[in-house]
């Protein structure tokens, strides 16, 4: 289908738990485009998990690697790309995304995010005394930046295919 995408990449941004990977994968199938998740790509090239990378090198090194991966992915395409929650917040990564991608912010409320991230424990940023408060703090700091994405789709607590349809409507 012809979409507002043209030859650009479709890039999902937003906080952890917003559904970037799950929705992104489904949208890619619908569009007949390849799907890639930047966290998986980082793990593949570094042969380490995100948790191991944070522990061994710290967040700054992780961000530098993330930016390199995003820069490279943005040269190719079109693809559907889901990014780690901090990618769009990083000025360098955001610049690369903006230059070659149509960005979609999957926006969700605290309780929806919490419900989803609470079940898993692989997010190094949430290894704090009060992870729900940490999530709220991340929302406060990051939402103004995510708002710079080209499009916003609310990631509500409904069936995923409903959200997928809303994404497709937004870009077609
Ligand atoms: C991060 C989100 C994670 C991962 C890393 C840092 C963040 O990705 O990149 O733990 O800064 O919000 P998800 O959004 O896929 O969980």
| Class by SSE composition | alpha/beta
Query: What fold name goes in the CATH topology slot?
Result: Rossmann fold
β-sheet strand percentage: 5-15%
Q: Secondary-structure element order, as H and E?
A: EHEHHEHEHHEH
What's the total number of strands? Answer: 5
CATH homologous group name: P-loop containing nucleotide triphosphate hydrolases
Give the strand order, joined by hyphens, for the main sheet: 2-3-1-4-5
The ligands found in this model are: shikimate-3-phosphate
Q: What is the CATH domain class? A: Alpha Beta
| Total of helices | 7
What is the average per-residue confidence, as pLDDT, rounded to a whole number? 95
Cα-atom Rg, whole angstroms? Answer: 15 Å
Distance between the termini: 8 Å
Mind telling me which CATH architecture this is? 3-Layer(aba) Sandwich
Percent of residues in helices comes to 40-55%
Note the main sheet.
Answer: 5 strands, parallel
Q: pLDDT below 50 for ≥5 consecutive residues: which ranges?
A: none
How many structurally independent domains? 1
């Amino acid at each position: 289908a012809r979409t507002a995408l043209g030859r650009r990449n479709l890039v999902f941004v937003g906080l952890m738990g917003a559904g970037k990977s799950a929705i992104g994968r489904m949208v890619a199938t619908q569009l007949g485009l390849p799907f890639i998740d930047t966290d998986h790509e980082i793990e593949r090239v570094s042969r380490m998990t995100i948790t191991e990378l944070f522990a061994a090198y710290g967040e700054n090194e992780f961000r530098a690697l993330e930016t390199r991966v995003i820069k490279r992915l943005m040269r190719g395409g079109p693809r559907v790309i889901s990014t780690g929650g901090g990618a769009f917040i990083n000025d360098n990564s955001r610049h690369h995304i903006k230059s070659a991608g149509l960005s979609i912010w999957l926006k969700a409320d605290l309780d929806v995010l919490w419900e989803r991230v609470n079940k898993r424990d692989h997010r190094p940023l949430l290894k704090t005394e009060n992870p729900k408060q940490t999530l709220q703090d991340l929302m406060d700091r990051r939402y103004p930046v995510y708002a710079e994405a080209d499009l916003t789709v609310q990631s509500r607590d409904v069936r995923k295919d409903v959200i997928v349809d809303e994404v497709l409507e937004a870009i077609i």
